[in-house]
Amino acid sequence: MTVPDQDTWAAGVRGWLHSAVGPVGTTSRAPDLAVFRNLSDEREADLLAAIRDYRRARYDAGYGALTLPVEHGGAGLPASFAALFAQLEAEFAVPPSTELISVTTGLVAPAVALYGSPALRERFVAPLLRTDLLACQLFSEPAAGSDLAAVACRARLDGDDWVLDGQKVWSSGARHADLGLLLARTDPSVPKHAGITAFLVRLDLPGVTVRPIRQMSGGSSFNEVFLDQVRVPDEFRLGGVGQGWAVATATLAFERQASGAGTRRKGGSFDDVLALARAQGVSGDPVVRQQLADLYVRRVLKAWTAQRVARAAAAGVSPGPAGSVGKLVASDLLVRTGELAADLLGHQILADHGDGTFAWTEHLLGAPGYRLAGGTDQIQRNVIAERVLGLPAEPRLDKDVPFSDLTRG
């Protein structure tokens, strides 16, 4: 297909956004400082309803899946167009998004489009991209987080159905999701990467139980999901039997390469810290100025790394370890932002004084969790060490050992 002129395309996007939601108003409002939101189920449902209305209009206007191939329901545009769309969205009053929306449209929908059967694609891709249906990830388990290939959730074939038993954890938005993209162990007699199969699971099936996980920051957007004799038709399988690791790595690649997906800003920003320093009357202090300068440099580095990933994707080249660098920079920036805010507030951060500064506690308590979400910092450092620096890989004694022979703690 012919790639449109970016300036002409951007003008069309601006026109549509202006008519759909209007520009951002001039009325000031308190910034959203939470890394992980602390919302009641009712408030989160209201938030989801607003963003889904917008996403449906966006999909119907042709902006719902910019980088997905045309044959899979997308626009087939380079990633640079998605990044540009996100920049343009920031100028308009787009409803705030959630992690569940991003996972649905940016991870699960593309996975179904690429690995689902024709019938599965026909049934689910458009509703997922349009957010008529919402989907979460069911990958991690209590003993399979960083080592995702160690999943122990079992799936055995019984006639035309697979029977699932196990537990998943840290599933964002699962209480509000209709579907889950799940990895299960279908053959324990082969090495761990080879015996995994991926399924699309309806979360209203008998035997599925979803429970919230309360975080120290107050929110409960994460969930644990229990599966007890859950029967899933074979037609809901993604990819071939034993090809679940390929589905998982592709889905995680979507996560790392996602650019301009419309996800909300996580936590406080440099501008918020600068405003805090000015409000505290210390922005002229030499030490504070140096701390602010360091934070600003790190913000710029994060933005440049994201642009580098976007340019690589636009050129059809895998960004590879650059995605890991970007994740490390982002999590480090979040933690340092919270620490500087805490330094500026001192004892004021311990209690609510009614001036709005206590909201920084949601950032401070949530930021460490981002070092784990989306791939731990340690895993990202391993990727960089092995693929960029050429250091020896960590010993993997279980590489060719059948999963059933492994000792699991």
Element order: H for helix, E for strand: HHHHHEEEEEEEEHHHHHH
CA-based shape: globular
Strand order of the largest sheet: 1-4-5-8
**Radius of gyration, in angstroms, nearest whole number:** 22 Å
- Helicity range: 40-55%
Poorly predicted ranges? 258-263
The total strand number stands at 8
Strand content: 5-15%
Give the helix/strand class.
alpha+beta
**Tally of DSSP helical segments:** 11
How far the N terminus sits from the C terminus, by CA atoms, comes to 52 Å
- Mean of pLDDT: 87
Major β-sheet annotation: 4 strands, mixed
Question: Would you mind describing this structure in some detail?
Answer:
There is one protein chain. By secondary structure, this protein is an alpha+beta fold. It is built from 11 helices and 8 strands. The chain has helices at about 5-20, 40-60, 80-90, 100-115, 120-130, 245-255, 270-280, 285-315, 320-345, 360-370, 375-385, and strands at about 135-140, 155-160, 160-170, 180-185, 195-200, 210, 225-235, 235-240. A 4-stranded mixed beta sheet has the order 1-4-5-8. A 4-stranded antiparallel beta sheet has the order 2-3-7-6, with no helix packed on it. Helix 4 crosses helix 6 (about 245-255), helix 7 packs parallel to helix 9 (about 320-345) and helix 8 runs antiparallel to helix 9 (about 320-345). The longest helix has 29 residues, at about 285-315. It is globular. About 40% of the residues are buried.
Outline of this structure?
With 409 residues, the protein is of the alpha+beta class. Helix content is 43%, strand content 12%.
